Amino acid sequence: MVSLLDTASVEGLRFFGRISASISHELKNTLSIMNESAGLLEDLALLAEQGKGLDASRVKSLGSSIKRQIQRTDQIIRNMNRFSHAVDEPLKEIELVDFLEFVLAVSRRLTAAKGVAITVQPTDQPLMVVTRPFFLHSLIWLLLEAGMGQTGQSKALTLMPEKIESDISIRLMGLETLALEAEKSFLPKQGEPLLSLLEAKIKMDLDQKVLILILPKRLKDEPRGESASTTS
Amino acid sequence: MKTIRVLLVDDEEDLVATLAERLGLRGIDAEWVTTCEEALKMLPHKQFHLAVLDVKMPRMSGLALKRKMEAVAPGMKFIFMTGHGSERDFEEGSAEAGASYYLLKPVDIESLAEKIREMVYQKEV
């Protein structure tokens, strides 16, 4: 019998592959910039050997460009490392604003390809939630992917986390073309096991053009088919 | 032999600016832009023999940009660059790009310059 966790894991694995491919693409870009900057330094050195003179400011700016790309690469690798460790602890307490900013950081290339600017609205107080971070990340990505097709001319989305009674909600705002029929079809089918696993619910506010993801503040129950929580 | 004029389009400014400078040192007159929209705006006013396009760019793919550029400048040649390094991506990209040439990043400048000359002079013959 296939457990809920197994079903969700298939989508999780697909998501993991998608993000890994995007990160490798970003790394290729930073490597390419460093390759060209280093190459131009060599070109300039060759010209200098031929008595053409050396523009010190150009050499300095190329050095700065390489340093910038090293810092950028370091940040990409830090994000990749954090993303890779997301599956280490099935259940974990996370701060939601930090988590959502991380979600956007690792998918920056994918959202930029769609030309959509996505921001996270900060909260006054930290919003702590005990959940399954990896599966929540997968679910939010599916919602963002669907949401990016619904922004209309604005090409902008905002994620707004907030506390509502005993639960936590994440409002996805800016869905300008959200229509009545989206209520049933907004989340693709592969997202349903993720929703169940996270004991989450989705509501739509068609007047405000907002999707609301509601999460329990503290997810406790082990789903069927999952062994006791392990941490490393 | 006439000066080859090339347009480089990639959303990474540091990459495209440096690439243009390096091509310039090899006798190829290269201009660059960082968006597809800028490329399309520039095209009716300037003539280029060839365009070097990044495959994945915000809002419009390099392949979609190629189709739009061809409509404005028929006969223009294209080279694609991509950061996606898998064999499948390479094969799919090459097939979609048709007769154009497909390069994996990081690009070897000498190979790129040689390919540009080859494609432009071949066109002239």
Description:
Chain A is α+β, with helices and mostly antiparallel strands and about 230 residues long. Chain A has two domains: about 5-85, Single alpha-helices involved in coiled-coils or other helix-helix interfaces; about 85-215, Histidine kinase-like ATPase, C-terminal domain (Heat Shock Protein 90), CATH 3.30.565. Chain A has seven helices and seven strands. In chain A, the strands form two sheets. Chain A has a five-stranded mixed beta sheet, with helices on one face. Chain A has a two-stranded antiparallel ribbon with strand order 1-3. In chain A, α1 (about 5-50) packs antiparallel against α2 and α1 (about 5-50) packs across α5 (about 135-150). The longest helix of chain A has about 45 residues, at about 5-50. Chain B has about 120 residues and is of the alpha/beta class. Chain B is built from five helices and five strands. Chain B has helices at about 15-25, 35-40, 60-70, 85-95, 110-125; strands at about 5-10, 30-35, 50-55, 75-80, 100-105. In chain B, α1 links the parallel β1 (about 5-10) and β2. Classes of the chains: A alpha+beta (about 230), B alpha/beta (about 120). At the A-B interface, α1, α2 and α4 of A face α1 of B.
Give me the CATH superfamily of chain B: Response regulator
Q: Which sequence of strands runs across the widest sheet of chain B?
A: 2-1-3-4-5
Domain count of chain A: the total is 2
Q: Radius of gyration of chain A, Cα only, in angstroms?
A: 22 Å
CATH architecture term of the largest domain in chain A: 2-Layer Sandwich
Low-confidence stretches of chain B: none
Outline:
The complex is a heterodimer of chains A (232) and B (125). Chain A has 232 residues and is of the alpha+beta class.
